Known about the structure:
By secondary structure, this protein is of the alpha+beta class. The chain has helices at residues 19-25, 30-39, 58-70, 75-83; strands at 4-6, 9-11, 46-47, 53-54.
Amino acid sequence: MQPEVKNDILQIPAKLYRIGELVSYTPFSRQTIHNYTIMGLIREAKWTDGGHRLYDESVFERLSKIMQLKKTKTLSEIRRILGKE
């Protein structure tokens, strides 16, 4: 794969993460990540040709917010709060 160059500047593709990588970098289980995706709390950025979800780096900020909100809110409340963002 050749790097993309625009105006003599290398365009580095954003890193995409599979669910297993999210599990290894966060305290959440694979099932929790899957459930949060189904509920709309987090969103996949892309899908692989094989049908695997890929998440961009923004998912870590979103998961951090969910962790903070879970201390005092239900998942329904969290979904409503995050839906307004």
